[in-house]
Design a protein that fits this description.
The chain is of the alpha/beta class and 230 residues long. It has nine helices and seven strands, in the order ααββααβααβαβαβαβ. Helix content is 43%, strand content 17%.
Length: 230
């Protein structure tokens, strides 16, 4: 029964993605509905409000491995609205626009990788939402780079609400949430691109990357649509 539910959920997800992309709002901006000449579905006004990240950065914990990261922009204004709409309103047009900008980062920074994967969510959260926004972004990037996407990680429990927690408490809150479910031989000495929507403390990305490296990956590069001021 669980398998049938998962299949049905995935079919609805694929159908929604297809309908959203095929029967889109034409030349309307995905944020304000004004006319947009840009193929990324953003008008000039909304595009000008984005605070782009121009440089890569690293996340590390207690002197352990250092993970290379890139983000399209800071989590504010237009980018924040697009991510919220993708995440909670099934707005796959905004998702495609975000993925296009992430694709541009790959090209501009000449990021090289052998496989793509994504930050997972729990089965409970997936059933509620019907899709994983990070997986949606990863699928788009996979198709446009002709690089295979692998489901390598599992989130085995929902973490507590991060609101009210300090930096160290947030890292501890995420610890132990993720499990490697792939084949070590598939990623042995391979470079993996890990996709997520937002980088906040960096804890989620770090622990996911650490799991991949501890299971034979040569390196992990993290790419997100947005980041906070970490």
């Amino acid at each position: 029964m669980d398998m049938l539910k998962k299949v049905a959920t995935n079919l609805v997800y694929v159908l929604n993605c297809t309908l959203n992309l095929v029967y889109s709002d034409g030349d309307k901006c995905c944020v304000c509905d004004n006319y947009s000449e840009d193929i990324n579905f953003l008008c000039d006004s909304c595009y000008s409000k984005i605070r782009f990240c121009t440089e890569g950065y690293y996340i590390k914990k207690d002197g352990k491995i250092k993970i290379e990261c890139y983000s399209v922009a800071y989590y504010s204004s237009v980018i924040k609205e697009m991510i919220v709409n993708l995440k909670y309103k099934s707005d796959f047009k905004s998702g495609k626009a975000l993925a296009e900008m992430m694709q541009r980062i790959i090209y501009e920074k000449n990021i090289k990788f052998d496989y793509i994967t994504f930050v997972p969510m729990t089965k409970k959260r997936f059933k509620i939402r019907g899709y994983n926004q990070s997986e949606f972004l990863a699928q788009y990037i996979s198709q446009h780079n002709d690089v295979k996407m692998l489901e390598l990680l599992k989130k085995n429990r929902d973490s507590k609400d991060q609101i009210g927690l300090d930096y160290d408490e947030r890292w501890y809150n995420i610890m132990g949430c993720f499990e490697f479910i792939g084949d070590k031989n598939d990623i042995k000495e391979k470079n993996i691109l890990l996709i997520d929507d937002v980088m906040t403390t960096g804890a989620t990305a770090f622990y996911c990357a650490e799991k991949l490296i501890n299971n034979n990956a040569n390196s992990v590069i993290v790419l997100t649509a947005a980041k906070s001021n970490i």
